[in-house]
Here is the input.
Amino acid sequence: MSLRLHIRAERLPLRAPFRISRGVKTHAEVVVAELTDGAVTGRGECVPYPRYGETVETVAAQLATAAAILARGEPVEAVLATLPAGAARNALDCALWDLVARQGGGSAAERLGRPPPGPIPTAVTISLDAPAAMRAAAAAVAGAPLLKVKLDADDPAARLAAVSQGAPDARLILDPNEGWTLAILTAMSGPIGRANVAMVEQPLPSEADAVLAGLDYPAPLCADESAHSADDVERVADRYQLVNVKLDKAGGLTGALAMVERAHDLGLGVLAGCMVCSSLAIAPAMWVGAVADAADLDGPWWLLEDRPGGARVERGVLHPPESGFWGEAGARP
Here is the structure.
């Protein structure tokens, strides 16, 4: 029996505006893929990212083409191979992992040969805002051990100082989202060296990061937009000390785990990352978080309402979804 793929776009309201150097969002725009054999259904969720030329419409169109091929009886593995690494392949790949588990072909834990992820420390994101507002936001989550601080080119030192004052014990991931120049990065070396900074994520535009090769900097640098899949890791290995592995970049759990393995083979650390998303996207990402050096998986924390039975973040710790939510046999909660 051929598989059927159903596609659904959803707009999930956020509990507060999410600001980065490229703009602000008030909703998470996601695409859900449901892969069914007629008896059981597997689900996957992706987040199209305009930075990579993706929209809800283009991703839905990619998945609609995949659905048509599946309807002709082509194996789903062959259909996945036709999709480039990105959001569409992520949704289908994760739906397949979930379907196989529900068909009795092996849970994600059984197929990977390791226990399901337990609670994982995760960064909690401080959205870009005025320094006073960022200080207040940091103080509100000061019990979290790791904060991710969104910055841009506008007085990043003042914002860093404000967050440090609001949460003096927290370690910080600074994320300018390609918004700095080499001059700003150099000027920030002093403030960063004096603060409790765990890493600086993608400070320069991806096309301008060759200047980072061999740079001696007071905090490790982490590639995000510069490294999408396992094929990119070696190219940036002399520029960064870590890579941010996101399922939406790598094309699903399969591609993300390959990216982790390649990074570790090259001696690089791994940050498990995500987009602003629901727990349906976070459940498979937790398998990456379990083998990463650090995790930034607070996507559902930003939602006004997450999916029933989903993950939860408490004091900077990500707790897994309820049993049966994703990647396991049995009824969905």
Notes: Residues 120-319 form a domain with the TIM Barrel fold (CATH 3.20.20.120). The chain has twelve helices and 14 strands.
